[in-house]
Amino acid sequence: MTGGKGVRIVSRTQLVEQGPAGETGWTGQQRRQRGLLALLLASYALAAVGFVYLAPQYAAMGGSIPGTALTRGQIALANAAIIPVVYGAAALAGWWLAARVPLPGIAAPHVTFGRWLQGPLLVGAVAGVALALFEQVMQRGFAAPPIPHPEFPSSLLASYTAAVGEEILFRLLLLSLWALLLAQVFKRFLSPDRSRGAALAIANGIAALSFALSHLGTAMVLFGVTSPAQLPAATWVELLVLNGVIGLLAGHHFMRSGLVAAAGVHLGADLIWHVVYGLIV
Question: Is pLDDT above 90 for 203?
Answer without folding.
Answer: yes
